Amino acid sequence: MPLPASIPPNASPDAFVRKGWCATLLDRWRTSRQLDALLALEPLDRKAVLQDAGLTEADLTAAAHADHVQSLLPAALVLHGIDAAALEADRADLMQDLVRVCMHCRKARACARILANGGANGGANGGDCAAHGRLCPNAPTLETLG
Question: For residues 18 and 116, what is the distance between their CA atoms, to the nearest angstrom?
Fold first, then answer.
C-alpha cells in the first residue's frame, strides 16, 4: 500500500488523522474495487503483482482493511522526527516493512488518538511520542530511525 507521494516536512500529525464519513466511504469503495480487480487476475499474475508490492496472498485481507496506513504511518513518522520521503528513497525495503506491520495492527483507533494528541503537544518534542512507542508494533524501528 503506497504512502502519499509527498509529506509536508512540517506537517502536523493530526492533518493525516481525520476524514469525513463520505471520504472514508469513497476510499473503502475504491479499495474494494481494487481488491476485486486483483482477485480477478490469474493466480500467477496476482502473485507477480503482489510480489512487486512486497506482499503475499495472506496480506490481501489485511490490505483490504488497512485504510488507516495511509494516514497513520506518515503521522507516526512525523511524530518520531523521521523524513518519510528520505526513508522511502534510501530504504524502500524498510518502508515496505513499516507499511506491512502497520497494515496488520489492530490498534488504529488508539494510534489515531495518540497521533492527534502528539500534534497538539509539539510532535517529537511532546510526551505522546513515548505513548505511541508503547502502543505501536513499529516502535522499535521508529525509535532506531528517529
Answer: 9
Tracing cell 518519510 back to the chain, one arrives at 84
HEC per residue, 32-73 = HHHHHHHHCCCHHHHHHHHHHCCCCCCHHHHHHCCCCHHHHH
Q: What is the mean pLDDT of each run of 10 residues along the chain (146 residues)?
A: 45 53 66 77 87 77 73 89 90 88 88 77 58 90 88
95 secondary structure, DSSP code: H
Give per-residue burial for 63-82: e unless 16+ CB within 10 Å, then b: bbebbbbbbbbbbbbbbbeb
Q: Nine-digit cell at 19?
A: 476524514
